């Protein structure tokens, strides 16, 4: 009985990452078929956004991320992780909107569980040492707001 309860709780983590803590490690596949891990990105700041195509707030935020990527992509790694949609759907979305930042897939929801994602979008700013500096649940309301957060926290 105890083993069954442990298995049921495996996917129900209630511990969310907090500002000041190390960001949980993750591995994800990009829509280009590459594998990325947070550990490989150490040494550079990371903007990490959990999103989905069918999320209206996510779609409204996407142009702000693209604009920030165009301005700061040489300083910060931008990664959007989708745990819901297929590779083909994300590829089509990326091409249609001309997105240049990294789009990754979390097909089994492992990264979303590690970050205790309950709402999309959820955004994290992670510094060069892998420490979470800022968490935003919900979308950025403007490009200026996103850029200000990047400047303030990274």
Per-chain topology:
Blueprint: H1 2-10, E1 27-30, E2 35-37, E3 46-51, H2 56-72, E4 77-82, H3 87-97, E5 102-105, H4 110-114, E6 122-126, E7 132-137, H5 143-153
Parallel strand pairs: 3-4, 4-5
Antiparallel strand pairs: 1-2, 1-5, 3-6, 6-7
Helix pairs in contact: 2-5
Describe it.
It is built from five helices and seven strands. Helix content is 34%, strand content 22%. Residues 1-13 have low confidence and may be disordered. Strands 2-1-5-4-3-6-7 form a seven-stranded mixed sheet.
Which fold name is given in CATH as the topology? Glutaredoxin
Q: How many distinct beta strands?
A: 7
Q: Name the poorly predicted regions.
A: 1-13
**Overall structural domain count:** 1
Query: Helix proportion of residues, in percent?
Result: 25-40%
Summarize the structure.
Helices cover 34% and strands 22% of the residues. It is α/β, with parallel strands linked by helices.
Please supply descriptive tags for the structure shown above.
154 residues; alpha/beta; Glutaredoxin; 7-stranded mixed sheet; globular; disordered N terminus
